[in-house]
Structures are given as structure tokens and as C-alpha cells.
Design a protein that fits this description.
This protein is mostly beta strands and 119 residues long. Helices cover 0% and strands 56% of the residues. Strand 7 and strand 8 form a beta hairpin.
């Protein structure tokens, strides 16, 4: 089992930056940590993910170089640095993780943190 807790969300102006953090705890070894988001009235979409062991990353198409996903495996922490934010980035952001037992599925989800970008 893995427990995820996000932090760092909030209100930011257009063009600003936010850094989300995700603290992982539990007995299972992580395989990958990622981020999804969901805006009101929209489907949930993939934002980014980082492999826990090698640190390799991938991003949703809309990111376009604005976000950086990372992890500190020694601290069991994951991060999502978001720059050049637009109003379209307003959403609840969820930290997700897959463990070594079931590496192909994001079985673990945090409670979500609200990001609001306003002009």
C-alpha cells in the first residue's frame, strides 16, 4: 500500500509559477509517480510522470515545456514545477503512483490539490 499527500496548490496569476509536492509513504516500493489533473466539466488528463528508479520522465502534450516533474527517492517525495501558467491550467491536481507489484496501473491516488490561475 502507498499513501500519497499533495501540497503546494493555490491561487496564482497568469504567467506565474507553482510547485506541487507529493509525499509518499507506505510499504510498497514505487515504480512510477505521476500527476493527473481534472478541471470542472472536463475529463481527467495526464500531466506528467517520473520513473522512481531511473528518473525518466514523460509529459502530456499540452505541457509544452512549461512543467517539470521530478522525484527525490531518498525522501519519498515527488514534485511538479509548473511555470508560465495559464487559466487553462486551473484544475485539481492529483498525485498518482504505481508500485512494483502492479507497475502498469496507477493504483494509488492522493486527495488532490486545487490550482487556480487567474488574470
Amino acid at each position: 500500500q502507498v499513501h500519497l499527500v499533495e501540497s503546494g496548490g493555490g491561487l496564482v496569476q497568469v504567467g506565474g509559477s507553482l510547485r506541487l509536492s507529493c509525499a509518499a509513504s507506505g510499504r510498497s516500493a514505487l515504480y512510477v509517480m505521476g500527476w493527473f489533473r481534472q478541471a470542472p466539466g472536463k475529463e481527467r488528463e495526464f500531466v506528467a510522470a517520473v520513473s522512481w528508479n531511473k528518473g525518466s520522465t514523460n509529459y502530456g502534450d499540452f505541457v509544452k515545456g512549461r512543467f517539470t516533474v521530478s522525484r527525490d527517492s531518498a525522501k519519498n517525495m515527488g514534485y511538479l514545477q509548473m511555470n508560465s501558467l495559464t487559466e487553462e491550467d486551473t484544475a485539481v491536481y492529483y498525485c498518482v503512483a504505481a508500485d512494483l507489484v502492479n507497475p502498469d496501473e496507477y493504483d494509488y491516488w492522493g486527495q488532490g490539490t486545487q490550482v487556480t490561475v487567474s488574470s
